[in-house]
Model the fold of this input.
Amino acid sequence: MTEKCKICGTNGAESHPVDGDFSDQTCDYCGHFRISGSATAVKVDGDRPLLKIRGHVQRYGTAEKPALLDVETMKLLAASDFPSVSERADFLLQEVHRSTTYLGQKIDVLTKRIVALTYSVVDSDVRFLADYLTSEGHVEKTVRGGELLLNVTPKGFSLIEKHQAIFIKNKGNVFVAMWFASEVQDAWEFGIKAAVTTCGYHPVRIDEVHHHEKIDDRILRAIRESDFVIADLTGHRGGVYFEAGFAMALNKPVIWSCRKNEFEKTHFDVNHYHIIQWESVSELRQKLEDKLLALFGPQEKTT
Done:
């Protein structure tokens, strides 16, 4: 069944069956996403917020697994910084590389998906980004009729492989979203951090969180670079729900935990997930270790 896209409003979006309050759609412009009923009511003013939401979905939604959009994620994306020209060019380079099946293959980049993926409005934006990559020596450009064909150069492959090597080196990061208070310092130090480290992963916690008027790019980058997220709901801080929701929008696994005497206060949006309940720090560590090893296994060391 086709209907209007719930992000951009264009006709022809394909709708897929889904239970509950969410709608699952695939739009030629916006990609594959699953959006909550309340998120569809979020007012998106101006072109740039729409481009940021659309670009996000195209980058993180796949045919098999849609990007998840709830109210907090929609607001987060609308308020986030717009990508720079160099970042948008990098998105284009990555997509050409992803689409390449043999060396020297020429990829047509004037598609609806690539326009959206590069946070562009029209084809001329993509042409500019292609010229940027050409000037840097990362691609070669061929114009054929109405097509703009790009192929990755040896210099472009070198840049991409360097980025991939850095990603592999950093593999194993686990972002920890939790209340930063002395009351749960032992839970962090001897519970969560100890469990994550024992399983061979690297825990990442950022103590200075600013969600009210400015989106902290360091937090978003740390979540993007993590393999999965641990969200401890003790204290029920808005930032914890916020960061966990962003991770889910990126299709990253989230492991939930909460001190048992505060479990009843968990927000209804998450209380249907399995939440580790703990009373002592040692119990938190053991349950978390068991969960990590069951879901992901020990992290293999890289050299």
User: Anything to note?
Assistant: The two ends are 50 Å apart (CA to CA). Residues 115 and 122 are 7 Å apart (CA to CA). The first strand starts at residue 2 and ends at 3.
